Amino acid sequence: xxxxxxxxxxxxxxxxxxxxxxxxxxxxxxxxxxxxxxxxxxxxxxxxxxxxxxxxxxxxxxxxxxxxxxxxxxxxxxxxxxxxxxxxxxxxxxxxxxxxxxxxxxxxxxxxxxxxxxxxxxxxxxxxxxxxxxxxxxxxxxxxxxxxxxxxxxxxxxxxxxxxxxxxxxxxxxxxxxxxxxxxxxxxxxxxxxxxxxxxxxxxxxxxxxxxxxxxxxxxxxxxxxxxxxxxxxxxxxxxxxxxxxxxxxxxxxxxxxxxxxxxxxxxxxxxxxxxxxxxxxxxxxxx
Amino acid sequence: xxxxxxxxxxxxxxxxxxxxxxxxxxxxxxxxxxxxxxxxxxxxxxxxxxxxxxxxxxxxxxxxxxxxxxxxxxxxxxxxxxxxxxxxxxxxxxxxxxxxxxxxxxxxxxxxxxxxxxxxxxxxxxxxxxxxxxxxxxxxxxxxxxxxxxxxxxxxxxxxxxxxxxxxxxxxxxxxxxxxxxxxxxxxxxxxxxxxxxxxxxxxxxxxxxxxxxxxxxxxxxxxxxxxxxxxxxxxxxxxxxxxxxxxxxxxxxxxxxxxxxxxxxxxxxxxxxxxxxxxxxxxxxxxxxxxxxxxxxxxxxxxxxxxxxxxxxxxxxxxxxxxxxxxxxxxxxxxxxxxxxxxxxxxxxxxxxxxxxxxxxxxxxxxxxxxxxxxxxxxxxxxxxxxxxxxxxxxxxxxxxxxxxxxxxxxxxxxxxxxxxxxxxxxxxxxxxxxxxxxxxxxxxxxxxxxxxxxxxxxxxxxxxxxxxxxxxxxxxxxxxxxxxxxxxxxxxxxxxxxxxxxxxxxxxxxxxxxxxxxxxxxxxxxxxxxxxxxxxxxxxxxxxxxxxxxxxxxxxxxxxxxxxxxxxxxxxxxxxxxxxxxxxxxxxxxxxxxxxxxxxxxxxxxxxxxxxxxxxxxxxxxxxxxxxxxxxxxxxxxxxxxxxxxxxxxxxxxxxxxxxxxxxxxxxxxxxxxxxxxxxxxxxxxxxxxxxxxxxxxxxxxxxxxxxxxxxxxxxxxxxxxxxxxxxxxxxxxxxxxxxxxxxxxxxxxxxxxxxxxxxxxxxxxxxxxxxxxxxxxxxxxxxxxxxxxxxxxxxxxxxxxxxxxx
Lengths: 288, 809
Ligand SMILES: Cc1cc2nc3c(=O)[nH]c(=O)nc-3n(C[C@H](O)[C@H](O)[C@H](O)COP(=O)(O)OP(=O)(O)OC[C@H]3O[C@@H](n4cnc5c(N)ncnc54)[C@H](O)[C@@H]3O)c2cc1C
Ligand code: HEM
Ligand code: SF4
Ligand code: SF4
Ligand code: SF4
What we know:
The structure holds two protein chains of two kinds. In chain A, 71% of the residues lie in helices and 0% in strands. Chain A is mostly helical. Chain A has two domains: 9-149 and 261-286, no CATH class; 152-256, no CATH class. In chain A, α1 (22-40) runs parallel beside α3 and α5 packs antiparallel against α6. Mean pLDDT of chain A is 82; it is low at 1-9. Chain B is of the alpha+beta class. Chain B folds into five domains: 3-129 and 250-318, FAD/NAD(P)-binding domain; 144-244, FAD/NAD(P)-binding domain (3-Layer(bba) Sandwich); 321-452, Sandwich (Jelly Rolls), CATH 2.60.120; 482-606, Jelly Rolls, CATH 2.60.120; 615-738 and 762-805, Alpha-Beta Plaits (2-Layer Sandwich). In chain B, 28% of the residues lie in helices and 24% in strands. In chain B, the strands form twelve sheets. In chain B, strands 1, 2, 5, 6, 7, 8 and 19 form a seven-stranded mixed β-sheet that branches. In chain B, strands 10-17-11-12-13 form a five-stranded parallel β-sheet. The termini of chain B are far apart. In chain B, 43% of the residues are buried. Residues 605-610 of chain B have low confidence and may be disordered. At the A-B interface, α3, α4, α5, α9 and α10 of A face α5, α19, β37, α21 and α22 of B. The complex binds flavin-adenine dinucleotide, protoporphyrin IX containing FE and iron/sulfur cluster (SF4) (3 copies). The site of one iron/sulfur cluster has 13 residues of chain B, from loops.
């Protein structure tokens, strides 16, 4: 096959260990160097961004932030580019090194001003990035286990068909029971919203309409409804089965939402950061 | 009184119609008999608005019947006008059911047992055949239909599909979202269909979307009910509509009953014809698709040509000029017929062909004149054609550093047959040994010729076998040294999953895998463990050949249909003393096997827990046909964040239409095999493209030329993995990227839907598939765009050895 120097290595491995964690080592070396530099440097005043070393850290930090933000564009450039995985790996590790370099750049001097604002924005972007990287590493495998070879579409189809069967079976019971069953088939353990996706726990369907319907059905045996176990059993089984499908779908939703939603912090704050940074640089040179 | 004509033309496709129009113009007494109630049923059945191509572009059109590139409707309209204007005598609804006789005394039986007689007959009935009908009482109801044009035309109906082939399954799935669909299957399962379709229908059945009646056959059709014979007795299926997809009856039976002979049982074989298109029945002419000419323009020309000859006013064949141009570089100024005669005399493979077959083959082949030392092809090229030496000789450079060790191939011999069959890279460079004339015949043409001319296949197999044994065992010696070993060799064919040799069997032979691939497995602790993967071109089964009474330590099984050359152990042992290098081959094999065992044992020892069941995974991949891939797309769902970047990358580099589909892929453990081309070693898709639009690039990519594709869907139907889609190539929407959509997309919010595409506008359907991004910078965009390392494209050998070494954990 056609091969080129930047052809991706053709076997699976996580972006964290891309080229043996090359960028991790680069980031570590960079941070170590920065700390040592800070340690041995004795500027005339207190350590700050205005010293010779401070300027150096500032420039590196600025370059890094620009490059990190460029990732948003690079990620959508397709064809004829090197592997994105290398960028991802570098993004994560060098993004982490930035925290060291930027902090040293401040000389640990924080005030209520635009300079500190830029720093705080950067810290939040990095923190959200850390969560993102965590999600990237953890969730795919969990999602795969949860889906167990199925797909969302199949699960939705399965749910629809189970719901239909439940409603059909419910017709042989009296109206009150039937109504409860219909309610149970509309029980999705909450809404599929972003908030639920981020914060929701695993729903406890048995506490809701499903539980109520099952309890009612159980009462039908012998007692009030005078039903045979064989009449009730299939319906209870179907309701339980649909509940497990719902739980799986909700869990899947949670994983997907968490894989996506940290970006709602990461990306807009990156933009805010770039603006704040611009003001910071302008202010530094203008008021010098 | 029966009607009598000078010529009866059967079938009103482009071939028959052109003949009838010419006959009317020439004043011949004639009749055109058409089965349906309209002209040209094959073209009539193309989908609405289909763009019809006029390939081969350079072939001139003969006669007065108009035909140029355009849309289905316009072409049919023009033909109707041409038929009317010429005054051709046409009878519609006149299916010829039986045919007998010969020149001067043909008898054709029409519906109602009407008989027509004719002196000569032109058969132009194409290859579509008659749709198989449901053979039960009540099947004549008007709601029993045999085609489905527009699935959206039916809503909330109870529909039964009879027939569980690909067409039936596709219809069932298309209808299921708006109707209550059941599918009647004579078999217990759907194994006849493509894997993609099988997965889809099984899913739909499991989820209750479609109801299946396995092991069932229709018994009767009543008002609103289909009565089935099932394994448990009769069952009644209430229906509003029945769609039967039972396939077509190939016209072959009809032809054989009329006395027409076929050269072989191969379904691709076409009747043998002389250069006037006459078959073995005197006075019976066969043209168009039925004669093996798959394009409209060819059919039109042949219809015209044949009538001109009958009317005593012959014209040169339409391809005369094209052939002259083909021959000109090697034979400047020579007459076409002289070159054809020369070829028949100098190239044994072409000797058995009729003039018609030869002309057709030469249109696709090339003739070269080489000076001494010119390179014919290079080692590692992905060319797949057969080279024949008409004059001079060729040298196969087995070792490029030692040109003196080259193997000489002489006049009238051929070479390159391995590339022809297994679609692998060339294994050696070949140069001209002296000034030479060589004919290069492409793989597609050779396949057709092999199907039609038995002797060609046998000869190819024989020579290939000799060379495999020679290069595999004693390539540094003259072939005459190992004639005795070759005599002990035979070519064997295996079906997919067939055992080639089993653990515990005596070691009585060694093998060379000529095509396909195989796995080596053995049972350890009651569990079958995959040990190795064998790719085409390898030697295997040699372990223990040196010991007396040794038994096989492992089972070797074909993963796809395979061909292997088997060499008996006794002949090998007998020649061992004479040829010490043979002994070395076996000793090396034993050592490398040992190394391998140690390596994988070490790799395993480091693992605490065996998460991936490597055997199950291997057998899953083999079942999915990965064994015949050269480059498979595999996603590790333990790493994949489902970001969809791979698909976006593919779409964005390919007219907005992604050639990879993750959703419809097959899954096992955490491995996902998306629906995407695997660039098969032996691509099924390439077997009958009428314009050769789907080909393999010298670097190995199987790709489709969008300019020449005519949208016939042959390739899509032939690909067992469902990776080729028929689409309107302009329908891919380039998402307008702006800062807003970018921002929305980055934070995971849906972006506004692009303007919907107008599907009613006239459009050209084309086949699209993965081309391995051969035109976009070399490496697959999909893999390059994956941020997590989940997506890879690999050769199965690489993947299997990675799995085997225990690194897939
Ligand atoms: C989907 C599709 C797309 C294609 N696109 C193109 C394209 O773009 N360009 C191109 O050049 N080619 C194209 N082709 C190929 C082209 O359609 C055929 O090569 C051409 O139709 C062959 O013509 P023919 O005259 O041999 O037979 P056909 O066109 O098949 O005509 C045979 C006729 O005989 C009739 N008939 C059959 N049996 C009997 C009988 N027993 N008695 C009486 N009548 C009978 C049939 O009803 C039919 O009308 C395409 C094919 C398909 C399937
Ligand atoms: C100031 C520092 C950073 C900036 C400016 C920044 C900026 C960005 C931008 C613009 C994107 C593109 C989002 C998109 O287009 O979808 C992105 C993606 C991402 N970032 Fe950062 N980032 C920073 C630090 C980090 C850190 C420290 C980490 C992890 C430790 C991180 C992890 C990620 C991840 C996992 C992605 C998702 C990639 C993808 O979806 O393909 N980022 N970042
Ligand atoms: S299109 Fe299908 S048959 Fe052809 S190479 Fe690709 S996977 Fe194989
Ligand atoms: S290799 Fe290229 S064409 Fe093939 S699926 Fe990937 S992106 Fe698409
Ligand atoms: S690009 Fe990689 S992570 Fe994203 S969907 Fe494709 S395989 Fe999964």
